[in-house]
Amino acid sequence: MSAPTPSPRIGLPEKLGFGLGELGNNLFWQFFMYFQLYFYTDIFKIAPGDKAAEVAGFMFFAVKIVDAAFDVVVGVVADRTNTRWGKYRPYLLWGALPFAIAGILAFTTPDLAAAPKLVYAYVTYTFLMMMYSLVAIPQNSLLGVMTADNIERTILSKYKFLFAFSAGLIVQFCTPLLVELLGKGSEPKGYQLTVLVYAAIALVCFAVAFLVIRERVAPPAGQKADLGKDFSDLSKNLPWIILSCATLASILHIAVRSGTYIYYFKYFVKDQTVDTIFFG
User: Fold this and answer.
1) Inter-residue contact 159 to 18 (CB < 8 Å)
2) 94, 71, 70, 88: which is closest to 219 by C-alpha?
3) pTM score of the predicted model
């Protein structure tokens, strides 16, 4: 019995391309986490006064339910996609432009009455979350098909998180500067043009990732996916359930914390110095 053929080493250009795909994805995701709630309440003005946070919060909740169902659809469809470029890699190309357009529309403030404006927010935010899923789920699945070597996958994970956290730093540092520079006194215009800049960068990142990434791991011939059996198996997998709950709690913590930073600095810190904040 012959030994299995070892998986080929992944070169630096492909690792960097994989990281750039993560950078493009997270430029948007981190931007949403840190600034979207603030945008809807203070700039878009989704509802008058104190009602804004309540209305925006309910919209986030409602859209996330729709998005959760759409995530499953994207995963099922991507698993069954077969092209000459692979299963998951094509979505970086097919989904990039709609994702960019969705981001720009979601951060555009239309001159509409209250009711049509709320409808616009629901439609564009739902579209944004769906397009994010269309790119992010296949992109995250690439890690499992680029190589079967566990060491190489660990290295790829390092590139993934390095570029993802770098995107967070870029967004946190550059967004206020870009909004002020591009908006020239108009926050609605500033946010719209800022997301346009991030969208352009993301498009380049996705294009590079698509060009350099290769899918090398294919499912066994004749293997058929059974969604019902998959859910049944997962429901009996206690470690998976525990890990999923822990991941959900972690993501919720990060999302809530990130979304409140800008309110803290705008309405509490303001122009205070360190000594006045801590010592009065």
Assistant:
1) yes
2) 88
3) 0.84
